[in-house]
Amino acid sequence: MLASVVAVQADRQSSLHPVFNDGRVWLVSAMIVSLIISAVYYITHPYPAYGAGLFLAMADQIQATGYHFPTTIPHYTLGGVPFAYPPLQFFVVAVLLDLGADPLLLTRVLPGVSSHSTSFHSMHWQKKYSVQCR
User: If you average pLDDT over residues 19-40, what whole number do you get?
Assistant: First the structure.
């Protein structure tokens, strides 16, 4: 029974156009929808959502420590928030702030940009490793 289901799925997949088999159509479709949602958000919300102030505070602390890892981020709890986040984006934000970028613009746009870019990378890694596992 299971073998016949697998055979039917294989036949169905092989009968699809090659563009549909490699996943690019689905990735592009999802990216278009998410870009539209992001654009609507940027147009309708002049300020960043949720924890953007914390992320800017982390970038400020990185600048204040001379681009070394800070131990805590002050002002969010009594003893400060421990700096235990993946640091790459905070270092990028710190450099962009040093170059004169607008902090408000960074906190509105960078989360969406990083979210969209990781979709492409995860698709690449998924395809690479799923082929190796078969």
Answer: 77
